[in-house]
Amino acid sequence: MNKNFDIIIIGNGSIGCSIAFELLSKNINLKIALIGPIDFNGSASLAAGAMLNNFGEIEYDTLSNKFAISKIKMLIKAKKMWPQHLKKLNNLTKNSLKIKKGTIVLNNSASDSLDDLNFKSIISGLKKFKEKYEIIENNKKIKGYDPFEKSRSFKSIYIPNEDYIDNPEKLLKSYYEFFRNSKNIDIINGYAEQISLQDKKVKVIKVNNNLKISAPNVVIANGAYAQNLFDQLKLKNIPKLFFGSGNALIGTYDKKINQQHVIRTPNRGMACGLHVVPMSNNHIYIGATNRVSDTPINYPICSGILGLQQSLIKEINKSYSNLKIKKTLVGHRPTTLDTYPIIGPTSIMGLFVASGTKRDGLTLSPLIGKIIADLILKKKQTDMPSFFYPERKPLFTMSVEQGIEKSLKHSMSAAYQHNLELPHIDFENTVVKSLKNDLINIYKLNKIKKGIPPEILSMYKYKKT
């Protein structure tokens, strides 16, 4: 069976849904196909804590990097769009999604000094962009916070406007409720398996091995799975996409959960740190791990789940040892070779990409929806720097020395976070020296001439780039 549309959107996470929502808001008569599994299997959005982060993931070198600063500016734009975006979605559906306020960032002793560096840089970022924050000296002021003494926070910051949505599943279902009530959008349950060209235009997309569809405009927004489509189209000048597979937990508690805000640590150990998000109906979200791979890791990893549970109890609240685990989550964050987004038009007429957003896809989704809709309908955009367009060289900003040093810091951070204990002699220097030599060898063997993001280095080590 063959069907024709005005626009095909491949991917039904928060970005794909936001693009479809924005397009229909601008022109209700557009014929749109939205492709993706309706159970949202592997969706990074569904497995996210739904934090609308602007500052919580700033690292010690972020503010010296023009590309990272540009992404922060995009995040700030997106955050300003969320209230109106949700209001419009709520008015068109029966749901009442709400933005909830406040994030507390801890600076505790559960890891190592990388936390101190990143925590300090978060404060610098807040000052740079004139964002309100408050220093918390007394841990008793943090509701729902009761850690082990050895893991208590020495200083914390409260960011009142670092927001979150308490139910990402409800968000995706709200989009789908709107789509089902719209006449001109086809919801296609499945995966885009094949894509072909004719006269340098996308001709046919094959779905579920039987349905063939076509459109003059196609948006690839299916996360890291986009790499398979890039390979079919022989688009080799796009930074390679990997699966940043992450595990998270949703738990509930017999007693009332007193936590009112997101409580989190800075980024650490090649991941986003520990974060606990209060949800509705006495549930909480605990996340999140990160393991970059060239193939999706579709099941939770024991060590990751164990680490989350231990960190939750030690670093957030002792009484969470009685938490009942309702669900384990797995999501695949689309992570590019340089960890920066790939958003915009391509050299193939009518083909657009919206991926590579790593952990920022949900936050950025209203902005990306507007950008892609404007590119398709108005043939222009003004809300995004062109250096994030898909067909580009990797945006590596570190020297080799800086890259090795950053990987070393994150590796040691991960080790201490996961209970590294060394003999009571001067042994740490030996471990650090050995680990640094291993990192130097990876750079030499792969002839790497620029500093590589720590979470990506293993892809070079195992020849997956």
Descriptive notes:
The chain is of the alpha/beta class and 465 residues long. The chain has three domains: 2-46 and 169-241 and 338-388, FAD/NAD(P)-binding domain (3-Layer(bba) Sandwich); 98-164 and 243-331, D-Amino Acid Oxidase, Chain A, domain 2 (2-Layer Sandwich), CATH 3.30.9.10; 400-461, no CATH class. It contains ten helices and 22 strands. α1 packs parallel to α4, α1 (14-26) packs parallel to α7 and α8 (400-417) packs across α9 (428-445). The chain starts with a strand and ends with a helix. The relative contact order is 0.17.
Total strand segments? 22
Write the CATH architecture name of the largest domain: 3-Layer(bba) Sandwich
Distance from first to last alpha carbon: 37 Å
Taking pLDDT < 50 over at least 5 consecutive residues as the criterion, the unreliable ranges are: none
Query: Helical element count?
Result: 10
Overall pLDDT level: 95
How helix-rich are the residues, as a percent range?
25-40%
Radius of gyration: 22 Å
Q: Which CATH class of the largest domain applies here?
A: Alpha Beta
CATH topology of the largest domain: FAD/NAD(P)-binding domain
Question: What is the total domain count?
Answer: 3
Brief summary:
The protein has helices at 14-26, 66-91, 113-128, 168-180, 226-232, 302-316, 361-377, 400-417, 428-445, 457-461; strands at 2-4, 7-10, 32-35, 51-52, 99-100, 103-108, 134-136, 153-159, 163-165, 185-188, 192-198, 201-207, 211-214, 217-220, 241-252, 262-264, 275-278, 283-287, 291-293, 324-336, 342-345, 351-355.
